[in-house]
Every structure is written in structure tokens, then in C-alpha cells.
Amino acid sequence: METIAQRLNHLKGSLPEHVTLVAVSKTHPAIAVLQAYKAGQRDFGENRVQELVEKQAALPADIRWHLIGTLQRNKVKAIAPFVHLIHSIDSERLLMEVDRQAMLCDRIIDVLLQFHVAQEETKHGFSWQEVELFLKSPAFSSMKNVRLCGVMGMATFTEDEQQVRSEFAQLRDIFNRLRAAYFPMDPAFSIVSMGMSGDYRLAIDEGSTMIRVGSAIFGIRPSL
Ligand SMILES: *Cc1c(COP(=O)(O)O)cnc(C)c1O
Question: Are 55 and 32 in contact (CB under 8 A)?
């Protein structure tokens, strides 16, 4: 049996330099996070606010915590003081709340816009039309405490490799078009967060710059 540190090191050794690995530790205990931390990992992802808050309090302060799951507006306040990057901004109202809480903490919070590219209806996200309207709106220009750093998305859960590739390519294309139209001079707008344990190689082929990998590092998640 390989250890967490071994799986992490194999994975990191296989990644191109421009790809950041977020180790998704959801459902795994703090001790597992610590094993990855000792092997040098600093970026960790959680999908639930409660779990994120508990782990942040218990683990080393230099961990960069990523919120990758659906975020409710009333939970933003709990993570605003420390969150490193929120991947899952899926509405204007949510972003407004992040901006407000970031202002109260006197910080600027980095965020990604989540897009719906998969076929499954259960996956959240903006459409291109919604984001265009929003980026042109005065509401967006007035937000001073959030920084848009790129896009995030998930592919359909399917064996069909061509479909997964084409959904990742769609997301990369959305990123390119947004960057060209709205962030041409902004080096911070640089992140395409796509790819999980089962599909990160395809995602990297299609232009991912940040992958979110859980089970390939920490093993099968204990069922909830
Ligand atoms: C759980 C999760 C991941 C990681 O999934 P694995 O298949 O365990 O690698 C990535 N992204 C999101 C949004 C998740 O919820």
C-alpha cells in the first residue's frame, strides 16, 4: 500500500510546472492533511464550510485553503478571514456577499467563476451570457474586495473521453474569451480550475492550470 506522501509525490512529479495541485481533503481527518503537509503540500481543498473552518483552526497556519464546493451566502462570513481561493462562485449575489465580508475583514478575496459545462443538471454554474451581463454591470465595477482570478468547472461523470475533453475545452475557451474581453492586462486572471482524480490528465491536455485531486491522494472517501 502506498502512503499519502508517496501518492502525492508521484502525482506532483508527473505534473507540468504550470499546473497547481489542490489536494482535496474533504471527509478525511486532519491527520491525513498533516501527512500531505509534511510531504510539502500547501494547497488544500474542502467542499463544506463547517469542515473547512474546523480544519483551518486545527492545522498549520501557512496552509492555503480552497473552498471548492457549493457555498451558501450565509456561510461566507465564516471563511472570509482566511480563505485563499473560492472556486465556486456561481451567482452575482454570492459574489456580492463575498465582497462585503472581505471588506469587513479588510482583505481582498480571490475567486473563480464556476461555469456549467457538464450535461448533468446537478452541477452549478454561470452561463456565458450571465457572466457577460454581470461583468458589464455597475454592480461588478463597484466590488472592491474581490479579485477575479479565473474559472472553474466540472466535466460530466462519464466513460466517454471525447465528451469529457470537449467539456474541458469549452471551459478553457470561456476562460480565453473572458481574459481577452475583460482582463487583458491582468496577470491575476490566470486560473483554469478543472480536473479531478478520474480526469485530471484530460483536463491538463485541454488547458487546466489547477487540478483538484482527492481520492487519488487520500484514498477512497469514507462514506458519510
Ligand atoms: C470532491 C471534489 C473533487 C475531488 O474529487 P476526487 O474524485 O476525489 O479527486 C474535486 N472538485 C470538487 C468540486 C469536489 O467536490
Answer: no
